[in-house]
Fold:
Amino acid sequence: MQLQCHPIDTPLLAVARLGLYYPLQDWWGDEGFDLLLKSNNGETLVALSVDARCTPWCKSLVYRLPKDQRTRGCGYALILVSGQGNEDLVRLLVQDGYANVNLVRNDRRTAVSAACSRGRLDIIKYLVEEAQATVDVRTECDSYISTLASACGAFCSMYTGGSMSLFDVIRYLVEEASDVVNTPIVSGFRDSPLKTATRARSLDLVKYLKLKSLFFSSCSALVQAIEERNLGIIKYLVVESHCDINHQLQWGCNSTALAAAIVNIKHL
Structure:
């Protein structure tokens, strides 16, 4: 979860991006530079220090920031360090950096969803239980950020056969953190946790999510299973969950699950 490279408009930020803390340690300590300086992509010095994985530099910058300005400097960095899985820096940025634990990045990442991508249940529990982070965040434009969908996405992308640590994360989000299994249609992530679990080709995960939210349509997940020709999940959703194959979908190329099946038969 590194920062993407963007043009640097200030020599100080160029030095920061290269992580030259140790060679220039005396200079960093004495120089009176703007601690809230940002790149043209909005990256703060604290965020760049996290991206360079330089813990001493990050701590130095946090403690040099005036207390009433630390929130502005540390929120973006918290998302990065949560994705790196560094619990010590997560605690530092929350407790001493006063980082906004519910900040939403441009790519719709939050600190909690970033920790999910690493399967770090310890960091997730700290953010939710001690730092009071919200697992189902709504942005100013009313987009919905589903942490559960992010965890299911990590289950899909990081592990071929699934991961018990990520399954534990998903159980925690549903059973203890009260995350929403049935995310709104206007979701910023758009794909529901159930559809994302279907993409992971995990029948156990699909069954778990379906049992935790019995009263919502699983048609988009069925379409996903049909497109991937996953007969096990198709049978479960149709035979055991009684999914309506004629339900009209609001998103995607196919109007119904039946239409998706017909299209896929044509391409066999």
Q: What stands out?
A: The first strand starts at residue 136 and ends at 138.
